[in-house]
């Protein structure tokens, strides 16, 4: 079933949705600020991109690892209490990180504190998505809710880094961006954890756990042992890889064309197209079966980014914008598909952990894509980031070969938007 505009209004206006939606906006906004804010802060204070990159990478590694661990804890204990504990640890860790940066502490020490800060960064993204299973019924309204999550996250990924860069440059102290990001995370997460809907979810989870009604996913991998969920995570990883490659490549192409500032403008337009296309796609998704949608959308996205890389050496930003805007139209549909895939392949009692696996896969993909693009652009010039698109097509092929694992889950459970 497809989602209509009335489904978006119904989802966002559902009883109990307003407070957690507003809180999660504040808490999720800094998701794309932390890494860049830290990198620029260290660079300004210590004067080394190498050190800045190492500290920023340490923060990202901690965040990726903490995301999955937190998801499992939140599914076992409910979101409220663990999130409030995380907020306290996160505040201390970020304070320690600022002290280490200002004191120019040894890189190993600062990196260790950055890892701790990353581990303690509240994983509100997965909790926000998982909460919709309590707020709206399975069907077009829930698909609309997941599309909203994807659209808002895309918006944060555009506005967050821009705000971080402005705060570092335009304020007297280069640590302002990191402190603003951390403050928003603290306020948003605390508010989210204390909303009535989240507290009710926590109470229900604890009650089910006490009565033995809450099923457990055991083992180191937990819910990730499920083949269908691993396939959806592969889709998220591939998406992040291609998107991260494109983000770096667009700036390189703009610089090569003699208009460095145009890179930011193009990426902003990319996100606008993504938002508009995401709403339109939700009304008439194609392909409808989710096990076909994931590889087809990733293949199209990767192919278009490959074309972007191949036309970049021509020095025409207009020519670059054509495949770029087409690729942008496939961003939100993919992220929405990943959420639907989690609903399809993971049990409801492990929803937060499963959603956080998707977040971790996307973050790792973006990081790998950015690193790959930087290396290949240095070697091959602006066309180098086409290699990321080519790798994305290989991931799409793997998804196609593994599509049966998602289809098998669909035979057992049929979520909104997954079938005709």
Could you explain how this protein is built, in words?
Helix content is 79%, strand content 0%. It is built from 18 helices and no strands. The protein is globular and about 60 Å long.
Topology:
Blueprint: H1 5-12, H2 18-28, H3 34-46, H4 49-77, H5 80-102, H6 107-120, H7 124-135, H8 140-170, H9 176-194, H10 196-211, H11 227-256, H12 262-283, H13 290-311, H14 317-328, H15 331-345, H16 351-380, H17 386-401, H18 403-412
- The string of secondary-structure elements, in order, is HHHHHHHHHHHHHHHHHH
Q: What is the CA–CA distance across the termini? A: 6 Å
User: What low-confidence regions span 5 or more consecutive residues with pLDDT below 50?
Assistant: 414-420
Beta content: under 5%
Q: Count every beta strand, where a strand is a DSSP E run of 2 or more residues.
A: 0
Number of helices: 18
Shape: globular
Q: Quote the average pLDDT.
A: 88
| Overall SS class | mainly alpha
Q: What radius of gyration results from the CA coordinates?
A: 21 Å
Query: How many individual domains?
Result: 2
Q: State the helical fraction.
A: over 70%
Overall CATH architecture of the largest domain? Up-down Bundle
Largest sheet: number of strands, sense, barrel closure: none
Which CATH C-level class of the largest domain is it?
A: Mainly Alpha
CATH topology of the largest domain: the name is Growth Hormone, Chain: A
């Amino acid at each position: 079933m497809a989602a209509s505009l009335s489904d978006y209004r119904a989802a966002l206006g559902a009883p109990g949705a307003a407070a957690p939606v507003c809180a999660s906006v504040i808490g999720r906004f800094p998701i794309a600020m932390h890494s860049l804010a830290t990198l620029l802060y260290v660079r300004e204070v210590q004067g080394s991109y190498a050190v800045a990159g190492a500290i920023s990478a340490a923060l990202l590694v901690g965040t990726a690892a903490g995301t999955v661990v937190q998801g499992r804890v939140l599914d076992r204990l409910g979101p409220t209490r663990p999130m409030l504990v995380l907020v306290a640890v996160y505040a201390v860790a970020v304070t320690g990180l600022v002290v280490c940066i200002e004191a120019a502490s040894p890189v190993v020490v600062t990196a260790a504190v950055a890892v701790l800060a990353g581990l303690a960064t509240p994983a509100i993204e997965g909790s926000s998505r998982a909460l919709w299973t309590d707020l709206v019924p399975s069907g077009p309204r829930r698909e609309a809710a997941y599309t909203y999550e994807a659209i808002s996250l895309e918006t944060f990924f555009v506005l967050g880094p821009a705000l971080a860069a402005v705060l570092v440059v335009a304020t007297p102290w280069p640590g302002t961006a990191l402190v603003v990001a951390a403050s928003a995370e603290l306020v948003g997460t605390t508010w989210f954890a204390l909303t009535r809907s989240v507290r009710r979810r926590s109470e229900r989870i604890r009650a089910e756990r006490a009565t033995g009604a809450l099923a457990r996913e055991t083992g180191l991998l937990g819910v990730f042992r499920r083949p269908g969920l691993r396939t959806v995570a592969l889709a998220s990883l591939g998406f992040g890889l291609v998107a991260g490659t494109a983000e770096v490549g667009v700036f390189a192409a703009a610089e090569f064309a003699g208009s460095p500032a145009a890179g930011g403008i193009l990426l902003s337009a990319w996100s606008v197209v993504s938002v508009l296309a995401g709403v339109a796609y939700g009304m008439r998704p194609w392909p409808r079966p989710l096990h076909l949608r994931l590889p087809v959308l990733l293949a199209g996205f990767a192919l278009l980014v490959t074309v972007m890389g191949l036309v970049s050496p021509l020095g025409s930003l207009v020519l670059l914008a054509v495949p770029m805007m087409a690729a942008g139209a496939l961003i939100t549909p993919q992220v929405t598909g990943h959420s639907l895939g989690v609903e399809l392949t993971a049990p409801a009692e492990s929803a937060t952990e499963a959603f956080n696996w998707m977040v971790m896969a996307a973050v790792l993909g973006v990081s790998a894509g950015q690193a790959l693009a930087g290396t290949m652009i240095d070697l091959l010039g602006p066309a180098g980031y086409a290699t990321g698109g080519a790798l994305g097509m290989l991931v799409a092929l793997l998804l196609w070969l593994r599509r049966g694992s998602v289809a098998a889950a669909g035979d057992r459970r049929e979520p909104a938007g997954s079938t005709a």
